[in-house]
Amino acid sequence: MEGALLPVIIFLVVYAAITFELVNKAVAALLGVMILLIVHVIDERTAVRFIDFETILLLMGMMAIVAVLRKSGFFTILSVWIAEKTQGSPLKILVLFSIVTATMSAFLDNVTTVLIIVPIVIELTAGMGLDPKLFVISQAVVSNLGGTATLIGDPPNIIIGSKVGLTFNQFPLYLAAPVILSVAAMILYFWLTRREQFKPIDTNLAKLFSVQLILQKIRFEFVSMHVDRVFLAKALGCLALAISLFVTQTITKLTPGVVAMLVAMILFVITRVDVEQMLGEIEWSTLLFFAGLFILVGVLEEKGVIEWLARNVFLRIGDNPYAMVLVVLWVSGLVSGFLDNIPFTITMIPIVKVMQSTTPIPHDLLWWALSLGACFGGNLTMIGASANIVSVGMARKLGYEITFLEFFRSSVVITLITLTISSAYLVLMLWFFL
Amino acid sequence: MNEKDRENLYKLFRDQADVLGSSRLTVVALQSFVASVKVLRCSREEIMPLFKELADAIKNSQPHIVPLIHLIEEFEAEIEPFTEQGLEAIRTEALRILEAKIAKIEESKRRVVEQGLRQVESGDVILVHAVSTVVLKILVRAHEELGRRFEVIVLEQDFNKTRQLLQALDRVSIPHEVIPEYTLSHAIRRATKLFLGATAVTPDGHIVTPAGTANIVSLCHVEKIPVYLFVSTLKFSHKPSEAQQIHRKEEHRSREGLCYDLTTYSHCLVPIALIDHVITEDGEAKHSLPF
User: Fold this and answer.
1) Is the pLDDT of residue B149 over 70?
2) DSSP state for residue A153 in the 8-state scheme
3) What is the rounded average pLDDT of the residues B66-75?
4) Residue among A127, A209, A224 minimizing CB distance to B54
5) Of A202, A210, A217, the CB nearest to B9
6) Looking at chain A from residue 126 to 165, which residues have their Cβ under 8 Å from any Cβ of chain B?
7) pLDDT grade for B287, boundaries at 50, 70 and 90
């Protein structure tokens, strides 16, 4: 590990700066890279080689697709339709919105999903005299759960898929079952522990009246909204094209990054949107953050730090596949609750690679353990995932303050339940395949 | 109904009134009442107290939605004889009465619009401030059906409040210009009329209008621009202006190192003496008003 001390120090400082939000995440990562370049730990060519452009391309393409979809009004149509279907039943609000949020998060980014769903959930529940906090927390949690089911649903999956070469279809094939079980468990947990919140309101005329007024308001806002049907059809057509190309990836040999970027460019051309405006909606700082982190972890890998960590920390547990899978799952889950799961996943990938090469485990179960841990673990605390922070922020803006402890009281139990479900699922898979 | 539920309901009323106007809100509230009665699960003994609870809440709204209150009072009086009947009979009667109330306010609005059409002339430059479905219908029908050629100056509040008005003017291609309400002094000399709706007309000579209207009416009065108020007689309240329960909100603000308490009111009180023409279902009413 010659010459590893400086990269390790820089990496830890960057990690601390990201965790405690001392500076912008992208600035922290790129400043770390710049220092490594200035002191000649690496040169520019090597730095660029470490960047996983497949991940960057996929993220950029999906962000562009989501920006156009948002402009089409599709999300508003969907949320109004769901609001109508709930007819003010608190249980239906929880179940239907959870299903929609989980499904949307599987194909779009979680932050976009909660930005659309949370305001309407708050409006419905607050108008009924319910406490919206429980519903806000549930939607943040379920967006993180739903995003775990596909390659494009959550950044850790995008990184794992791209770096490891897993296909789009493999993700739902292996992860849909624990995700569906976890969503069901979350709904059941909230229903069992907060029964008073889910009492039907059809015996209370005043509450029924308030709900009908809210639905009228939502309908009116929807009618006032200008929806360009041709634009909407083009946007949905392109989303369908992207998903079908993801699904047929093994036949077309097109990587998800190429598919996402191709479809985004087709959308830009056929919808004649203001491209500058759409490009402005791409989160460039997130992409730069990814690029910086890839370089920082690449340097650690090159200096042998990752291999040292894998052999001296993770491989200490021995070569028992059950223990290895469970350690990756629970370590990822617990760490992701407190640290950003993106840098954590980028750091863990080379470690898991070493573990996989030392003790091959069938059916990529180590990778699924990492994915389930990193994504589900984000639910542990309010700061564990971007969707949590955004949901809590929106609730605050609308007058409902959710404290760190309030979030934690619900989320810690749910995270433990979902990680236990994942453990049982992975153990069962190992038992079956070994 | 607890205090929190009442507050939520009144806030909903205010939000809806801002974007729909009080006449349309009355229709929407009655439709919501109908939809709620249809799905309500209760016993025969419970249904009348439930009606009373909701009616009391509506009658105490902040501010008073006067046409809705009148119609709810009529509903209470008309449902009373059916108290001793079975649950389904009471439900059926309640729905019939509520549907009749919806028809009544719609008819009243239609008649005000008919009267209002006579006040629009080609060449007019009409100032419009807050959303009023009656004023909107007058403008659209005068342009589309009567072929009057006039211009509208929209005094912009926030986008949600002005959106409906702009969409309607755009849809039927009525020429219009949008200016912030606080810059009216620059455009007022071009204006020939100001058209208004109101939430209530009080017996002590005031009208309850959306916030900001009093300043506009005052400037129009000084500049001798005729002010037209279009109201259904259902908006004539029995209660004086101080009993209209205009919502008062106090909040603490902190901005750029300055901290202060800000007090806002949901609606304005405008002296009716500043209104030149009050148009009701029966035509010009200024001289027959009860004050």
Assistant:
1) yes
2) T
3) 94
4) A209
5) A210
6) 126-129
7) low
